[in-house]
Amino acid sequence: MTELASAVLASSAGTSMSLKRVTATGRASGLLLSMTVRQAYRNDTDDTLETVYTFPLPWGAVLTGLSVEIAGRRLDGTVLPKRDAQARYEEAVGDGDAPIMVEKSSDALYTANLGNLKPGEDATIELRYVQLLSIEQGRVRLSIPTTIAPRYGDAARDASIREHEAVGASLSAAYPFEFSLSVEGALAGGAIASPTHAITVSRGEAGTRVRLARDGWLDRDLVLTFEGASGAATAHALGAPDGEGRVVLASFCPSLDASARASVAVKLLVDCSGSMGGDAIASAKHGLHRALAELRPGDRFSYSRFGSRVEHAFDGLGAAEPARVRTASRLVDATQADLGGTEMHGALASTFALGDEAADVLLVTDGAVWAIDAIVEAARASGHRVFAVGVGSAPAESLLRRLAESTGGACELVAPNESIEAAIGRMFTRLRVARAHDVRIDWDAGPAWSTLAPRSVFDGDTIHVVAGFASPDAVVTPRLSFKLDGDAVSRTLEARVEPLCVPVDAVPEGADEPLAYLLPRLAAARRIADVMSRNGPRGAFGAWARDLAVKHGLVTIETNLFLVHVRADADKASGLPALQKIEQMVAAGWGAVGSVRLPEAASAPTRSAYHDLSAPAVWRSQRGRHGASGGTVDEAPLLYAMVEDSTSAGTLVERIARWAVPPARTTPRRLLSTVRKILREGSALDALVRRLDRAALPDGVDKALRAIAAAGASRGEAWTIVLAVLARQVGDGALPGEAALRVLDARLAAMPVARREAGERVAERLLGAATLEAW
To answer: Which of 432, 465, 496 is the last residue of a domain?
Structure first.
């Protein structure tokens, strides 16, 4: 039986998810993309909700705006320092209003917080972002991520993801996805295709329009490819006013016109963790066979695979002789996703240590790890270039891009149904070009600041750089110069700056002087990312980045987008909201749950669809086992355990369903804001207690209340003691306020002294070192 006809947007606990649909519309002109993403919410429960939705944006995307439609009103957000935005958000929730806050959680991950969505209420969060596209060997690949596949490691420890932002997934979650894109300029005239979705392409005098042939789902990256976008040996630049100065964006696509290196040394490393099961490992094996076929006499190579441990097939690098290549080919044939967790840090370190620092690493993985910073730093220090190939429906692009950029390598992403053989071929084209060195960007006029030149230059691959100038009239001629091994003189590519003009207008029609507004913001975002990658977000650099982000309205680790719908007194939310974390759809084909194909119908994949071939997007693998051993991998997290056999796929279903339990979200600030709002006279204490008892309380508060009540205090007395202690420890001039403090003091004075003092000692011990933001 199939449940396609009765798919329900529900969490693993059966609660109706408030996210109902996501719609993305955009415009691509030249190499500039602008997108508007609308997240539609409706509260179908009987409780007031606070929804928290962590979602991905493309690597390099710059979030430029927030608008919200709620209760018949459209409101626009503003960028505030993170602490200020968080404080205002918490107070607004406590006051019964409806605040909305969007914050950056990690690399390319953002979280939308919607407070006090009342039963039956609708809201639409609209996000706008821009992104620079790149030509890579004659093609442009546009990827719109829609879900976050499970990742190995501890999100809080390894990526500083806060508890309520942690990503969870459910096989019963299903969110419809709509997409349309207008394409103008050179990209409109070439072949446009999608390996991930059924699309329609209509061409007319007004341009080219790309749409989904039917609704999609938030279960895979949406990928569009534009072929024939030749940009080799070209350079473009545009400039725009920035305050009293000027910013310039220069884009170079060099043609190296160089003979191939006589030989290459490459260390092949493939991810064989549980998340790679099914489509990803099948794609990886095809790619590895193509890599072996690319080897020539005189090349040297090694082959290694990793999961919870790393296995090297050879002692080190060896000549690409026919016998060695055949041995490696047999090993590739036998490769399965059977090595447990994704311990990438140790695997890379072990591979780097195989010898010959001049060798390059060709890494094939889904990138599903949280410990990105540590891995990137180790790779940067190794002296190796990393050429990363990301496979699967939702690879972690941030890790793969950073690995490539920081080491001077390159990155390719390959979706199911997309040719990994072609991607590997492009990688070997890059590998065989002589290494670039002395890469420089010269601007003629001395810039006040500029982003760093890349570590490598590859034939036909685009390079974007930005710079700022103190004078709006500075004469600027951007030049890319570099040498290849064996060059006696530098190669140079020069761009002419087009003032107040870009190859295409990527801002929605009707906008006033879009370039004068958009380009400085995009340049500031790249400047912040460049400086932070070199110096980290601490100290003076963190403060500088925060101030620059506020000035240009950018969302960074130190700034948030914020707005609040202030409700009329009669419309205020009457209780602290219940937290609802919007669960991710499981990435199609992830972890051998199924296999991906283009949809033939618009029905949602449901839990039973993972056992039924009628599912449109994901169908159950018919292999007898998901992996070579078929056994549970003890050293891997629960989510990475292999399914025992083909009849027990439900085991994995239930593991995913239990993966993430929504954590408590009530903060001290929110609690004290609620006290300020309600506790204006003693008779309001009972109403306050009823409201607070419905809140999701942290363990320390709950334990304190129970311990105080066990000593003979009433529930009202226990809450009075806890709130009074909390007000003394973390309250400020506004929280909980003079009126509430008077009521609390009067209630405390009416208690028996021994009971009050004993309760205060318990509360002080169990509440710990709370702050306004966290317990």
So the answer is: 432
Six token digits for residue 571: 């419309």
Q: Tell whether 110 is covered by a domain.
A: no
Model pLDDT for residues 122-147, shown as the tens digit of each residue = 999 999 999 999 999 999 999 999 99
State pLDDT tens for residues 732-774: 878 898 999 999 999 999 999 999 999 999 999 998 888 888 8
Mark whether 428 and 288 lie in a shared domain: yes
Residue type, 80: L
Token output for 291: 């890599």
User: For residue 337, what are the domain limits?
Assistant: 265-432
Residue 426 and residue 295 share a domain: yes
pLDDT in tens, 597-621: 654 444 444 433 333 322 333 332 3
The Cβ-side half-sphere exposure at 352, using a 13 Å CA radius, reads: 17
Domains contained in the chain, number: 4
Distance of CA 706 to the CA centre of its chain: 40
Is residue 175 assigned to a domain?
Answer: no
Question: ∠ CA(692), CA(698), CA(704), 5° rounding?
Answer: 80
- Are 252 and 271 in a shared domain? no
Neighbours of 172 (CB within 10 A): 25
Q: Which residues of 648-686 are buried (b: 16+ CB within 10 A; e: fewer)?
A: ebeebbebbbebbebebbbbbbbbbbbbbbbbeeeebbe
- Which tokens in the block code for residue 412? 């390719």
Give the Å distances, CA to CA, from 231 to 140, 234, 331, 761.
10, 6, 39, 71
Task: Examine the domain organization and report whether 605 and 539 are in the same domain.
Answer: no
Q: Using CA atoms, how far apart are residues 486 and 261, in angstroms rounded to an integer?
A: 10
Among the listed residues 28, 67, 142, 172, the one whose alpha carbon sits nearest the alpha carbon of residue 654: 172
Based on the fold, state whether residues 289 and 397 are members of the same structural domain.
yes
498 in the same domain as 397 = no
Q: What is the dihedral of CA 43, 46, 47, 53, to 10 degrees?
A: -30
